Amino acid sequence: MKIHDVAIIGAGVVGCAVARELAAFELDVVLIEARDDVGDATSKANTAILHTGFDATPGTLESRLVPRGYALLSRYTGETGISVEPTGAVLVAWDDDQLAALPGLRDKAVANGYHAAEIVGRDTVYETVPALGPGALGGMTVPGESIIDPWSTTLAFAYDALARGIDLRLGTRVESVQAGPELTTLRTSRGDVTARWVVNAAGLGSDVIDALFGHRRFSVTARRGELIVFDTAARPLAPKIVLPVPTSRGKGVLISPTVFGNVMLGPTSEDLPDRTDTSTSEAGIASLLEKGRRIMPSLLEEEITTSYAGLRAATEHGDYVVDVDAGQRYACLGGIRSTGLTASMSLAEHLRDLLDEAGLPLKPRSDLPPPVRVPVLGEAFARPYQSDELIRADAEYGRIVCFCEKVTRGEVRDAFAAPIPPRDLNGLRRRTRATLGRCQGFFCGAEVGRLFGEATGTGD
């Protein structure tokens, strides 16, 4: 019977970050994911913002880990090629109550160690984002907010973890737990997994896994956030992230550029009983269009490329739930909300320290490979089709398959040669941008599908 030192449940951005961190030590680590790809649940559908943590509740674990995660992830993007753009953000006050709330938000930012936020008048707001609709009274600038490629972040963590020797098991759902005095056996859909320690990073299912270990510390509610994605022609309208003044339900509806050259409007916030419902709704889209019409009317004149919905793991607590039970040799990472992308590396670092205190032997390795480089997908960076040198060395990088997103045959080929190849067309989209553009695969879908079938042996 194979015995692992640590079994991690959940290969979202946090689970992959934890796997990468623990694999830096002399440990046998297995990462278990119910879906057929990493980052295929909450991590794939978010607002893709690298947060400074300026508006976190002071004194919470989140307020401590988000700024630390911001620093760690900012450095990591440079090492791996993950696309990130420091666009900055502006909070816009549309009424007197929101205007009066700005000094408190600035004080909160200072309490969180962020001193660059500045309250500005109406004229500065419109100079910053000229396309804003009429009626803004003032705002607060947050120059450190950035946009990031969320898909490549999760993949980079997973690739690094694999390079460091972890065992990745996709399509493996944990169904029950048998805990013993020294070992825990996870009964999964693909056989038993036995480990000395278990880490629960199961996202939307984290409370279910927690209950299997006998805990009732929190309950997860699937909070649906619907978003509308506008065509790349709209990008000049949104040079910065446009944030609302936050409420108790979250950061509200924003307008944000993306690293892929689009503009996003959203998200909504709706609690659902179904933790798998990522459909969009007529009411949700209508609500976004109504809010968008006030924030930036000219945006609604642009073409809509697509809409999508993501599910956040909301809990009854106002903070992350991170705890280690030394007696059970069990760690839980629950209630990791929209800031989890930014905090992923600091969450892994924090958990490492907690596990060390709880008795997990951590002996640093001296043979760590360098960080794995991921394909650069950001529109602000040089892409393969633009590189004469790359094309001269390999003509496949000059053969465009997806003309909307300028994706080449070479990039599609590379995706299947990567440490974790795509299992479906959605996975290929997240690795290359193929079919993500304005035609949504209408023109290139057949050829992309043919290449997928050719690579996976599933074609005719």
Summarize the structure.
The protein is of the alpha+beta class and 460 residues long. The protein has helices spanning 13-22, 61-80, 96-111, 122-128, 150-163, 206-212, 282-295, 340-358, 388-393, 409-417, 425-432, 445-456; strands spanning 3-9, 29-32, 49-50, 84-85, 89-93, 118-121, 138-142, 146-148, 167-169, 174-179, 184-188, 191-200, 221-230, 241-244, 254-257, 263-266, 270-272, 304-314, 321-325, 330-334, 400-402, 407-408.
Uncertain regions spanning at least 5 consecutive residues: none
Helical stretch tally:
12
Report how far the terminal alpha carbons are from each other.
Answer: 40 Å
Number of strands: 22
Structure classification: alpha+beta
Which shape, going by the Cα principal axes? globular
Helix content: 25-40%
Rg calculated over all Cα atoms: 22 Å
Mean pLDDT comes to: 96
Largest sheet: 8 strands, mixed
Fraction of residues in β-strands: 15-25%
Structure description:
The structure is a single chain. By secondary structure, the chain is α+β, with helices and mostly antiparallel strands. Helices cover 31% and strands 23% of the residues. The chain contains twelve helices and 22 strands. The strands form five sheets. Strands 1, 2, 9, 10, 11, 12, 19 and 20 form an eight-stranded mixed β-sheet that branches. Strands 13, 15, 16, 17 and 18 form a five-stranded antiparallel β-sheet that branches. A hairpin with a 2-residue loop joins strand 11 (184-188) and strand 12. The longest helix is centred in the first third of the chain and has 20 residues, at 61-80. The chain is globular. The mean pLDDT is 96.
